[in-house]
Amino acid sequence: MRLSSHYRFLSVTTALVAICLVSPAVADDVIAQASSPDSTLSVKVYVNVEGKLSYGIERKGQAVIAPSRLGFILADSPKLDGQFAMQSQQTSSHDETWEQPWGERRFVRNRYNELRVNVVQKAYDNRRMTVVFRLFEDGVGFRYEFPEQAQLKTVRIVDEQTEFTVADNATAWWNLGGEWNNLEYSYNQTPLKEVGQANTPLTVKTDKGVYISFHEAALTDFASMWLRRTEGQTLKARLTPASFGPSVERLAPFPSPWRTLVITDNAPALYNSDLILNLNEPNKLGDVSWFKPSKYVGIWWEMHLEKSTWAQGPKHGATTANTKAYIDFAARNGFRGVLVEGWNKGWDGQWYGSGKDFSFVEAYPDFDLKAASAYGLKKGVHLIGHHETGGNIALYESQMEDAFKLYAAHGVDSVKTGYVTDGGAAQFPKPGGGTHYGFTDSQEGSRHYTKVLETAAKYKIAINSHEPIKDTGLRRTYPNWVSREGARGQEYNAWGNPVNAPEHEANLVFTRMLSGPMDFTPGVLSLEGNKREILSTQAKQLALYVVLYSPIQMAADLPENYAKYPKPFQFIKDVPVDWSESSMVAGEVGDYAVIARKDRNSEDWYMGGISDDQWRSVDVPLSFLDPAKNYTAQIYRDGNKADSKGPARFDIVIESKTVTAKDVLALKMAPGGGTAIRFVPKK
After folding, report:
1. How far is CA 595 from CA 202, 293, 379, 584, 600, in A?
2. 225: pLDDT strictly greater than 60
3. Separation CA 249–CA 223 (nearest Å)
4. Are 260 and 140 in contact (CB under 8 A)?
5. Fewer CB within 10 Å, N side or C side of the chain?
């Protein structure tokens, strides 16, 4: 039985272990240290002769992060960087298991040791700050806490001094940060020493075989962090700038987001980590059983193919008649949702980066929201709402309450939002009236996305953000933030120049997907974009439903294309979206990934494997299956001649065999290919 709060404590935080007062340190003194519960990882905190703070991380006694700076630059006060002395430190331990209302796994263990380092700047009226470290078996999170104090009531942060100096030579997988295309760049694979300014998650593999993923957790009311390489293998935090004034301005007391490092000795362990989720606060919304994880279809891909338009006119896609046709298709094939884009006024003319004409409560004349929704609900199909803002956050916020109220009145319980504009060109409301421009990943942007969640929750509506601020695990705190885009998705296969490369998804799994669910919109079995080929096999399109997790998954292709390929379409109809267990069972960054998941609502298991631009043969033990059962493995795999280019993209083999937990399956995946398997227990 699930508790209404959606998390269950199996044990509680231990009592405070130690409090000690320490005199000011001499040069490079270790002033505090702690280890993970299994002693695999350890952190040391240093103060040098100038009172500058730094930290270092070791794994099994070997340096992973060399001593790296801590601190902040302030706008109207001396820097929080230097003249520090230890005031006190505390350590504690924590071990609990909590339940997700939906997710990759039902139960999540949260076990760590915590070190709190309280420091004081005696030269600046005894200003105080705390650095908190949480050490897990597979990584470290740390954050800054700004206490309430008369000498620093309002904290105005220009930038952050935090550094991450990787001790050993490393290769990095990263994409650009702070540029015009926001989060939607292809991933680079370079030596760490060649990284420029990057978004997170940023993943590295050292020459000694240590894997590290750098990111952040619990990003609320704060500027997002980019990472800029300064010299050698040092990455330095850079906070997204504000339109005016400092990057962050807040009244104390408050904490920063967590700076996170998942640290493992193999690539699958990066993906299997729950560190990001565990560093977020528990569910604030209470019972969210009104959100139903599900699959959907919609009026979307046809517009990317230019078969119809978002704007009104003879090719307008979001008509009542077309919506009812999609509802009929969804009902016949067991899909709960139908996404309708382009139903509301404002799509005519130049809406990109403007959004000035959008109405979120007025429909075009050929769309009847009430009638379409009622038609769907009679068939068990819910409309999925759409709020494209064109980056005009000011206009959206002025209508948002009425917009959610309208949807709720017609049974629409999830909404896809959009912010299509260049980086730094979103329009925010200016105090006193008017607007100004800024980044969606600024502190203002962070506040806006939270405001959307809180407003939507009032009406029991879930949010799927496109062109979002990056995921930092806030789905634990706000479980109505069910998915988001935040990377190059399937739409780039319609019109991208270039389209997504065969290795794109194998890069996503070990970078973007480490942060949380992605609405990639898989399942294009036609393998055709807008006059261009999709560099994928059909089997890979199926495997993506298992590999790229989201509690909402789109069957993105046109209904007529699914009619052409009914046998592979069967897997799309069968595969669930909510899981009781998940584990990457094999993989290597940028090369391939094989993930197994157990359906939360049955005893079925599913497995998906994807490859880059190389043929892969991977032996996968089926030890995750119940050893007391025999299973029918329904296999959808690449044929012997399959390839991501030309007619060979359609070479798919569909077969069945009996397997047990003792078996080992040899997965053979073509370039740009994959394998999708459903394991059904035999009765």
Report:
1. 21, 19, 34, 4, 16
2. yes
3. 10
4. yes
5. N
Q: Give whole-number Cα distances, 663 to 268, 568, 630, 660, in Å.
A: 20, 25, 11, 6
Q: Read out DSSP for 573-631?
A: HH--S-EEEEEEEEEETTTEEEEEEEETTSS-EEEEEEE-SS-EEEEEE-TTS-TT--E
- Looking up tokens 């040391």 gives 44
CB atoms closer than 10 angstroms to residue 325: 14
Residue found by looking up tokens 């390489």 in the block: 229
| Average per-residue pLDDT for the chain | 95
**How many of the other CB atoms lie within 10 Å of CB of 119?**
24
Question: Any bridge partners for residue 205, and if so which?
Answer: 171, 211
DSSP 233: T
- Please state whether the peptide bond connecting residue 253 to the residue before it is cis, i.e. omega within 30 degrees of 0: yes
Predicted pLDDT of residue 26:
37
Three-state SS at 428: strand
Q: Which residues pair with 214 in a beta bridge?
A: 202, 261
pLDDT digits (tens, 9 = 90+) for 143-156: 999 999 999 999 99
What interhelical angle do 538-547 and 566-574 show, nearest 10? 0
d(CA 134, CA 43): 9
- pLDDT tens digits along 443-497: 999 999 999 999 999 999 999 999 999 999 999 999 999 999 999 999 999 999 9
How far, in Å, CA of 593 to CA of 665, rounded?
15
Which 8-state DSSP code applies to residue 468? P
SS3 60: coil
Q: Where are the alpha helices (DSSP H) in 301-459?
A: 301-304, 320-333, 369-378, 393-409, 443-458
Kindly list the distances between the CA atom of residue 27 and the CA atoms of 132, 572, 637, in Å, as whole numbers in the listed order: 22, 61, 61
The 10 Å CB-count burial string (b at 16+, else e) for 519-537 is bbbbbbbbbbbeeeebbbb
Do 608 and 668 meet the contact criterion of CB atoms below 8 Å apart?
Answer: no
Tokens of 418: 């959009």
Structure-token pair, residue 123:
């030269």
User: Is 491 noted as a catalytic residue in this protein?
Assistant: yes
Q: Which residue out of 137, 388, 491, 503 is catalytically annotated?
A: 491
Q: In the predicted model, what is the mean pLDDT of residues 108-116?
A: 98
Residue 519 makes CB contacts below 8 A (sequence gap 6+) with 416, 464, 466, 483, 484, 485, 489, 550, 552, 554
User: Residue 414 in contact with residue 482, Cβ under 8 Å?
Assistant: yes
Give the pLDDT of residue 14. 37
DSSP 546: H
Q: Hey, what amino acid is at 15?
A: A
Q: What is the pLDDT of residue 432?
A: 87
Q: What is the pTM of this model?
A: 0.95
Closest CA to 449 of 483, 481, 421, 486: 481
- Res 262 pLDDT > 90: yes
Give which of 602, 606, 562, 573 is closest to 334, Cα–Cα: 573
Contact 671, 639 (CB under 8 A): no
Residue 50, beta-bridge partner list = none
Residues 267 and 460 sit within 8 Å (Cβ to Cβ) = no
Mean pLDDT within 647-659:
98
